[in-house]
């Protein structure tokens, strides 16, 4: 096909530079795409869609009829990251997660960072995701955030920024693995001769991490994945990970706490559980410790956890570092705990909890992106340049009513990747969510999930709002 | 394994097996309708009664004709036992145990569901359902085969097989009993609609099932046709012929109830279901340590030591026997539920909430 017709339209493109030359790492991919015959791209895309349908790779959308499953759109043109750039990202993520883990531990114990005046007191005390019952906790092996899915974006300046940290129960890693699988099935030619870092060993690394953090007394630890059930938006992923690791997928009703020990109900009676990879939010984890009306949790779970009889992944309370107001302080947090400068920069962020910054935000609202500090999935975000006056007024009122709960950032010009439209390619905006495991050491899965806004011009990549995904290749130089 | 998971796997397999059996019975009825020995109204009505959902059918559809009955048994999502409902439920169950079953199993179940869903919206199949029925049967057999070939034959597999065979035993017993619903004596079961078959003088050929004094049926041509259809409905005609040759009521009933080697015979199903049950519990045949073993073992032994002439001559005859069998089979299934699946409250929950 003729790639000369492709337009970068002034955006940073991940595969092409401004003169339409392939970027480092993308040369072979671009050559293979150029070799595609007329109609081939559309044909491969159809084959990939069909594969996804029969594989039943779905997610659920909230706000629709319960259990509405959707196929998550997948685009067959991969996103490429050259290996040298990747190694910088890898170091940056490792650094960040190490610092954040120290921060969380400090917040729930001595609060030295507050005493030293690096972050303000109001920031940690008033966070919606601060969990009182976690105060004084020492999680197994000193790790709080075992699994992180940091969101990265590349701006118009070509620089990769951290957009969000996602330290609670980040999802999407199953799509990384399934996307690779679908690519191999439907477009194997693209892989020929390339040195692409594998992603297939993630389940093994995950299991090893889960076993590592088991309470010391359990010699052959029993690991389970705890899901809210089949109507949860990420149920596919929960069952996928349990299956890939060969561990039980349990619901709250399958577990019972007796004598501060967690057990699961099996056809042969009760069986002890040592490690729970829980995909249930803190709030719903244990009705005796958090929300009383939780129907999906396990009564007594926090007591068992405090008694050291079970490990929870991630530890309860990590959401405090997911707060977007805390995010703004992460470069300082890194410097405070590690004595280093942040390797991957933050997007400049105004914290409305600070009066001076709040005034600036209110004055420049129509230029900024306003985000609630404690939402995920893209909910509640107002894009100033694209909002109506009424929306801006409403946004202004909400900030004034509760400044602590808002941050604002400049509107980013997200980078783009060529994406199949009919039988040709058009640029679509993307972000990147690498996945990080923190156990005995820190492991960053090469690549991660590239989410793509499939609607022309859209910047919203969330699966719940019309986004799709792409396979992500970390490509090393040289051919096999 | 988890009780909840065992429950889902057991029911997933019952649902798939149920869809297949309903498909077979519809096919056989289509054949019989072409034979012309029984009035179509009576045939389609008998088919609905066979599966026990006649009250629901009469209320919502009224007239038992081909189009209504096929809509009801194949595509009707309000009928929990329609093929569409069964495969939808099986897929939901498969989704809840996605981590326990193999990918080929999941894909086979998912494909069956997608196929039925597409067919159900098309509806063109009501008038020419052969291809659809074929596909439902093929899907069930594919899922069964893939299960055997790609899932470890451990606890989960045994629960799967138990579910499949208990369902099959029940469905075969219903097919054996179908003559009951052809009889004028069953007219009380028919709807009060004016076109209802009960109000028509039945074709004499259709009445040839009536036993004479000593319980032996007069072998008429129509008799052979109908009992051949019963065998077809259980995919049993060829295997039956190897065993018995000519088709007669006594021999067909004997084959489908008592045969130990034919995989759709009730006896075979119970022998294998019990094997799976004992594989799960570690128990041994002839003794019991829980109600599931007791009830299933007892029912299996009535077939071990029963014979067909006794059944036909007994009180209630064949229908009475089948009725009793279904009742006892239900109780065995309930016992399996209570023994393995029920989420029993745990002793010292009070201590936890203190």
What does this molecule look like?
The complex is a heterodimer of chains A (480) and B (354). Chain A has 480 residues and is of the alpha+beta class. In chain A, 30% of the residues lie in helices and 23% in strands. Chain A is built from 14 helices and 24 strands. Chain A has helices at 27-35, 40-55, 83-108, 112-115, 121-125, 173-186, 202-212, 235-245, 282-285, 301-306, 324-328, 330-338, 355-363, 389-401, and strands at 58-60, 69-71, 74-82, 147-149, 151-154, 160-164, 195-196, 223-226, 248-250, 255-258, 261-266, 269-272, 275-278, 311-313, 350-351, 368-372, 382-383, 406-410, 416-421, 424-433, 435-438, 442-444, 449-453, 467-476. In chain A, strands 3, 7, 19, 20, 23 and 24 form a six-stranded mixed β-sheet that branches. A four-stranded parallel β-sheet of chain A has the order 9-8-13-14. A four-stranded antiparallel β-sheet of chain A has the order 15-18-16-17. In chain A, a hairpin with a 2-residue loop joins β19 and β20. Chain A starts with 26 loop residues before the first helix and ends with a strand. With 354 residues, chain B is mainly α. Chain B has one domain. Chain B has 17 helices and no strands. In chain B, α1 (3-35) runs antiparallel to α4 (66-75), α1 runs antiparallel to α10 and α8 (155-176) runs antiparallel to α13.
